[in-house]
Structures
1.
Amino acid sequence: MGVLLIPRLTLTLTIISLFIFLSRSSSQEILINNAERRIDLSTHIVKVFFTLKVENIGTNAVSEILLAFPPTQADHLAFVEALATTGKRKKKTYVPLVVKPTELPDAPNETKYFSISLVNPLNSGDTTTLEVLYVFTHSLEPFPMEISQSESQLVYYRDSALILSPYHIKQQTTFIKTPTTKVESFTRLDPTNRAGTEMKYGPYEDQPPYSYSPIIVHCENNNPFAVVEELVREVEISHWGSIQITEHYKLVHAGARHKGIFSRVEYQSRPSFSGVSSFKHLLARLPPRVHSVYYRDEIGNISSSHLRTDSQKSDLEIEPRYPLFGGWKATFIIGYGVPLQDFLFESPDGRRYLNFTFGCPLAESVVDKLTIKVVLPEGSKDPSAVVTFPVEQHLETKYSYLDVVGRTVVVLEKKNVVPMHNTVFQVYYTFNPIFMLAEPLMLTSVFFLFFVACVAYLHIDLSIRK
Ligand SMILES: *[C@@H]1O[C@H](CO)[C@@H](O)[C@H](O)[C@H]1NC(C)=O
Ligand SMILES: *[C@@H]1O[C@H](CO)[C@@H](O)[C@H](O)[C@H]1NC(C)=O
Ligand SMILES: *[C@@H]1O[C@H](CO)[C@@H](O)[C@H](O)[C@H]1NC(C)=O
């Protein structure tokens, strides 16, 4: 019996692994006819726009396409988005596709993968065009690592001239856009051309799977390397008319470290030469109809901020007490209120929900660690958050001075946040309107107790005098 069982088990396992192999073997079934990659190095956030025309040259339908990244890039990958395009030119339509990290059993050189799920499987002989956007943070390495006030900032960018892919690529071209025309050096892999702020690698023909050819670009980049090491945004809902937002920032200039002394005289008299990589203004994009805006640091209120509002947004321009040079930090708080009716709604099933923006209001910034705390009104129940990308979630309780049972706080946490994460999220909850009376009731009872205490005191006082 046992002797018979083992071969049968092995056979079953073989069939299972064969099946897994078949459904995964798409790398032989997919051919990339044409791939174009545009790498934008114009800020400190590296954006890659990747267009690929894929063809199913196998016999079975294929429902997922793989994207490959070397492990060092995968560590800095903040965002991936894929769209399927159909139609040409003006009639082009885009269909968003689901992209998920995935693993392959024999990934060469620890390649990391993402799989794009096609809406309709690609049948044998069919082609489709995909547009992918991916974003890297902390991928421009300042070199020299330290610069003085009068020097411009130079950075290294490392990549491969050939696109890393598990598929054969028939023809490919990579364009790299530099912030300025000042390029110290770049690796050549013929054909390579450079004109103005653009470098062109390719076209390269018939590259087999996992082709790789490292390149280094050394170029000038004086854009603000604004990195918020930690951002905590507290969104407090009061059913009495307003939502109060308090944001705690720990900001650092993540570019080349400043060396030598800082001369404010030189900085102010020669602004186009001195401290070109430093920044002294920051733009925070807040919702329209904000009120009670403040901006303060550990010393106190900073009055040098300007608020411009229109019907779409409010732009708050803030100025830290000193300009930020490489390695310098600033800690500050921005607070504001927004009308309840702009962000709090009732869903068809009777629950209430907050519809608010995720991410960081500071323009073109990277947040290493973001925490959003949504403080629900007292008496709220069954909270649930809806975010379109993975975040860590947990609940806390917060007590403020008039609370009876405390408030539920929905805590959302995410690392490596870029402006592409500034999309809406929702927090749903149920609420018993009887709790609307809790605060006034507390106020009245506090007042009443105070009154009783006064009367009692007077009474004792009077009886003693008698
Ligand atoms: C893995 O990396 C080594 C050295 O970096 C390279 O020579 C080799 O071709 C790579 N292997 C594959 C399958 O890409
Ligand atoms: C700071 O500004 C806020 C809002 O304008 C105000 O309520 C607060 O009293 C100010 N604090 C100080 C210390 O000036
Ligand atoms: C949330 O607000 C955005 C606009 O700010 C709107 O497009 C979206 O439909 C809203 N979502 C929900 C679930 O109400």
Note: Residues 108-109, 210, 212 surround 2-acetamido-2-deoxy-beta-D-glucopyranose (ligand 1) (CB under 6 Å).
2.
Amino acid sequence: MSARRSRKAPFKACTKCKALVPHEVTKCPICGNESFTENWSGVIIVLDPENSKIAKSLGIKKKGKYAIRLGA
Ligand SMILES: [Zn+2]
């Protein structure tokens, strides 16, 4: 952690399942995809995908942190 100000988001989003992972991660822990994007917006934290309507509507099956929208 540096004191330098950065407008960069602390996470990048998997282009396949939209999972948010730290920048140093090279492979998505949720779906195994290796493609990520910095252009995402909105965060949803899914704790109980079985019972979450939002998770269902976004197609999220595993608990974790996801971007709601991809693309700038
Ligand atoms: Zn993924």
Note: The two ends are 26 Å apart (CA to CA).
